[in-house]
Every structure is written in structure tokens, then in C-alpha cells.
Predict the 3D structure of the following.
Amino acid sequence: NAGVTQTPKFRILKIGQSMTLQCAQDMNHNYMYWYRQDPGMGLKLIYYSVGAGITDKGEVPNGYNVSRSTTEDFPLRLELAAPSQTSVYFCASSSSGQGTEAFFGQGTRLTVV
Amino acid sequence: GENVEQHPSTLSVQEGDSAVIKCTYSDSASNYFPWYKQELGKRPQLIIDIRSNVGEKKDQRIAVTLNKTAKHFSLHITETQPEDSAVYFCAAGTHSGTYKYIFGTGTRLKVLA
């Protein structure tokens, strides 16, 4: 199993550009999450989804959008990139909402200049 | 909102000594408490977890304790080895509305040979 796959691994954006971070999981997990990790900091929840067609805001949703058209995919969209969005982004998934392991992707390192 | 505090932010121990990392959560609805290890440049990976109906859990050199009344949980690593050096994150899984994981800010553990 590939688990959780994120693309790209690295990206440099100019201020005002847009991009989509891709996340796919092959474990048939219902729950998927997007976190950002700033240098020396913890993981902040951006958005999450409990199933196809259902998404909700986390702690730091401003400047981001998500969609969940299939169980497998949970892309994160950045509109009008800002330097404050320079971070490492992790996608994660879990099988259920009753306390199960969250599996993480390898991360996307994004720099906005 | 939900919050998880983690202490200390950095911890240095001599090889063979024990390390203890402590977390406090705010949401009494939290029922699942995983600990993740993140090596430099890599994704977080689960090392141990505990559910709210259990007070302690051990797995070889690592153990986790939970005090639901005080809303505290701790990670204990005994006989530390250089390969234990990493950033450790605690998290609280909470079913407030829909299920999500709130992470602590991380502890950078250095094991000195």
C-alpha cells in the first residue's frame, strides 16, 4: 500500500499566485485532514473531511479551500499566496472518528516569495 | 476552542536516562491520545496511543499515562538511545461536532551519547 501520497514535495510560489496541493490515500479512509507545520512549531489543523462531499474548517482555514469529491482525494487550494503561508503542509487520513491512528503523507514544503 | 499544551519544548538527556514529556488538554470530550515521533525532514509517525478508558499503556521502552480527571497525559521513554532523538508530538482526538485531532506544539528530544 502506498498509504497517503502528497504532491508536490517542494514548491516555490510568488506572492499572489495560486496552487493546489494534492493528497490521495488508498486505505479507504473516511477521515482526511490538512495540517500546516511552521518551523519549530506544532501541527495546526487547516481543514478536515469526514467523507466525500463533507468538509469543515479547522483552526487556521483562512486563505485555503478544500474539496472532497471522492473518498481517495482531498486537495488543498491556496488562492492568492502570501508569505505567511510559507510552511510544510501535511495531509493525513484515518479510518474512523472513534480514535484511530492518523497516517501522514510525506509533506509538501511550500515557500512563498 | 480545543487546545493541547505540551512541555517541555526541548529536552536533552544522557543516553540511558529516562525522558518524560507532558501534555494537557482542554476538551473533556477528548477520548483518544496518540503520540507521534517526527524525525528531521520526515512525516510524523505514531509510536503509542491510549484511549480514555485506560490509565496506562506500555510498549517496550515507551509508556503513556493518562489522568482524565486532571486532563493530563505523559510520554515516558526509558533507557534512551541516540535514535530516540526527534520531535515528539502529543495529540488529543475529540468528538466535538465531528472528530478531529488537535496537536501539541512538540518537544525536541536530544539524546546525548
Observations:
- Chain A touches chain B through 28 residues (CB under 8 Å).
- The mean pLDDT of chain A is 93.
- The radius of gyration of chain A is 13 Å.
